[in-house]
Amino acid sequence: MSVPPPMPQPVPPTMPSSPQVIVEAVPNFSEGRRVEVVDAIADAIQAPGVHLLDRSSDWDHNRSVLTVAGAPEAVMEGLFRAVRAAALLINLFEHRGAHPRLGAADVVPLAPIQGITLAECAALATALGRRIGEELGLPVYLYEAAATRPERRNLTDVRRGEFERLVQEIHLPGRAPDFGPAQVGPAGAVVVGARPFLIAYNIYLRTTDVGIAKAIAKAIRESSGGLPAVKAIGLLVNGRAQVSINLVDFTRTPLHVVMDAVTELAAQAGTAVERSELIGLIPQDAMLQAAAHYLKLPGFNRLRVVENAVQAAGSE
Fold first, then answer.
1. In 137, 171, 221, 294, which residue has its Cα 20 to 30 A from 242's Cα atom?
2. Candidates 3.30.420.300, 3.30.70.670, 2.60.40.10, 3.30.450.20; correct CATH number of 199-304?
């Protein structure tokens, strides 16, 4: 007598997976010369679940920028570890560099990437700032979307006078930190906040005259009546005048508009653009905007890129 085959078991329906929550952080540290110190900070930030996407250091700025991403809890832990390492290894009383700074771990911005809002990133920044203040004993200022005061939304305003002035003024009511002690040690203060994705972009001129770079920076930055969503300063870096730019919203002022403006202003000043550089990462759409502009492709759609078209077709 044959045994009947077993009845097939019902297959449970496949549940759609919840979208992964990803936050990005781009902490800036006041050290760009001692490789071993930057290595230690980079090692510290890579807590389990944190992906180090980019690392950039500059001797003249004496500054390093790390780009990390991952689940919020992992990124928060990695950032705390990195701030702790920087506070132990960097002495602002001895630090010299071209870039403005307030602390060893100078600024720690969070940005929403997937499945998280800017407001939620601001809440994370507040929690991280509180932990840094309480556990590391560092003064912490909240900025941008996490700011507790209107005058602290703009990083430039928070960092005005830099470390040296903060040492003299932190006891004043207007300079009281959001978290941590109202006193400044060798590690300085930490500025923590949340903001949309920012493009850090530097343009080098064919001149050593830093005055030209400063004049161009003033002409293009929004605070001086220039281009919307553009922050800029002029510096001397690697023997060249540099226009150091933060593009805080490339949908308001695309990257190519900034380059065209700097190119025109440089020509008026009797010089030219030599080259440019990105610090950290850049959204694909920002590069496609620039490519379409310089290739003179009006109305270019990102789905004309084969990889994007294939990806879109696969998701249907």
1. 294
2. 3.30.70.670
CATH architecture designation of domain 22-194: 2-Layer Sandwich (3.30)
Q: Which of 99, 171, 256, 293 is catalytic?
A: 99
Residue ranges per structural domain of the chain: 22-194, 199-304
Q: Is the pTM of this model over 0.85?
A: no
pLDDT in tens, 76-125: 999 999 999 999 999 999 999 999 999 999 999 999 999 999 999 999 99
pLDDT digits (tens, 9 = 90+) for 242-286: 999 999 999 999 999 999 999 999 999 999 999 999 998 999 999
Active site residue 51: no
Asked if residue 234 lies in contact with residue 241, where contact means CB atoms within 8 angstroms, the answer is yes
